[in-house]
Amino acid sequence: MQTRRGARIVLLDQDDRILMIRHRYDGVIVVPGSPVREFFWVPPGGGLKEDEDFLQAARRELLEETGLTEVEWGPCLWTLDADVRWGGEPLHMHERYFLARAHGTQTITRAYLEPGEQEGIIDHRWWSLAELVAAETTETLRPVGLPELLADVLAAG
């Protein structure tokens, strides 16, 4: 089974809201046992390129998906290992989630998206913890258990 290495960013604003990216489900990645809805929300991020480490990939992906560069980087918060089906084939995903803080008001742009991402990335939104908890029954949030994971991060300061 092949492994896909990825980096994601838990980007918090001054009000401790997390930035989430809304993707259109295109049938590529299926997490066994999870409901499949047309759209899902996930923190910004993506796969590592051949010459990158996880933090380099996180910085590149944040720029590509948001245009943001003025952030304060923190530690790796979580590591996710999951077996999924990608294009009908089994795949092991290994992702690292990095904490970052956005300062002030910055405009999010789609200008740096790669051509294939233009159709798949639908929207972005800043979510409070309470909004994530409320949305968990009606929206598909990734990673699984995100409200509880974020609550732990916020409680730790």
TrEMBL record:
InterPro entries: NUDIX_hydrolase-like_dom_sf, NUDIX_hydrolase_CS, NUDIX_hydrolase_dom. Residues 2-150 form the Nudix hydrolase domain. Keywords: Hydrolase, Magnesium. PROSITE patterns: NUDIX (PS51462), NUDIX_BOX (PS00893). The keyword Magnesium applies. PANTHER family: GDP-MANNOSE MANNOSYL HYDROLASE. This is NUDIX hydrolase. It comes from Nonomuraea helvata.
